[in-house]
Amino acid sequence: MEFINWAAAKLLFDVLQALFMGVMAAYVYWLNKHRASQTAIKETHTRIDGVEKKVVNLEHKVERLPDHEDIEKLQEQMARTNVLLAEISANQKSTSVQVNRINDYLLNQGGRS
To answer: Do 5 and 51 sit in the same domain of this protein?
Structure first.
């Protein structure tokens, strides 16, 4: 009289072993999938760090650019400079006319004396 049915025990052991191997295969698949996504996340972090460095660099460059107030000041200075140049040009023309008159006088009157 046998208390243990060895054929049924072997079948039960084989089924449990198959289930355990199936669970292990699923775990290994999930682990490898997770590892791949960790690698992808690290690569993404590396790319984001590169982009952040470029953004910081651009922010520093933009901070040094002139703003609207600076451009308005430059326009006002250019307008004042244009007015001064116009005055200088007018003075130069009048001085040129006077020099030409003196030159004509000296050429015409200077030879008689």
So the answer is: yes
